[in-house]
Amino acid sequence: MGELASRGQLRASFLRVAVVTVPLVVFLGSLSGLLSNSGYDNPWFAALDKPALMPPGWTFAFVWPILYVLLGCAIAMIWHARGAPGRGVAIGLFVVQLLLNYAWTPLFFAAHKVGPALWLIVALIVLVAATIVAFARVRVVAAVLLLPYLAWLGFAAYLNWQIDRLNPDAEQGVEQAIQYEL
Predict the structure, then answer these.
(1) Letter string b/e over residues 29-46, b meaning 16 or more CB atoms within 10 A of that residue's CB
(2) What is residue 8's predicted lDDT score, i.e. its pLDDT?
(3) The CATH number of 7-181 is which of 1.20.1260.100, 3.30.230.10, 3.30.420.40, 3.30.565.10?
(4) For a pLDDT cut of 70, what percent of the chain falls above it?
(5) Domain boundaries, the chain
(6) 156-171 as b/e, with b when 16 or more CB fall inside 10 Å?
(7) Which of 43, 118, 164, 167 is most buried (most C-beta within 10 Å)?
(8) Which helix (H) or strand (E) holds 136?
(9) Helical (H) or strand (E) element with 40
């Protein structure tokens, strides 16, 4: 009864958790984008002036699922680390940052709130950095899996800032376009 689990048993236990967390993180991220009409097919977004470094639309469709898979694996590692000091704080930070992540898309693409979306992504970057520190205290590999996400968020914040700078009337422009159509 007091025997330690074998590596195979531990791996199987981790995989049972990852089979839930990875699809859940990917699904909810995709749902947020779908319900918000995110991307270049959004007429409001298509009409905005874009920064010179704005990548083509397919880039986002390629990068975000990969990042969400990494996030799902990272949280599975932390979830699986039962009894590890700081595990609860790490999970709490992860959940909060993930909710902010999912909230950015509707705020930007559906509500057309470019400025508030920028502040949200800055808060998200701070929370992700805190999550990485908390994850590193539990499982270093889980923290490392979040580094590409943090880097991409930095790039996304730059794009958000540039869009805000290039389109100071982005929110009013939508209202004017709607009134013009009526």
Answers:
(1) beebbeebebbeebebbe
(2) 55
(3) 1.20.1260.100
(4) 88
(5) 7-181
(6) bbebbbbbbeebeebb
(7) 118
(8) helix 114-138
(9) none
Q: Write the secondary structure of 146-174 as one string of H (helix), E (strand) and C (coil).
A: CHHHHHHHHHHHHHHHHHHHHCCCHHHHH
CA gap 136, 164 in Å, rounded: 34
Select from 155, 117, 135, 116 the least CA-distant residue to 74.
135
Encode pLDDT of 98-118 as tens digits.
999 999 999 999 999 999 999
Shortest CA distance to 75 belongs to which of 100, 104, 95? 95
User: What is the pLDDT averaged over residues 151-178?
Assistant: 86
CA distance 117 to 120: 5
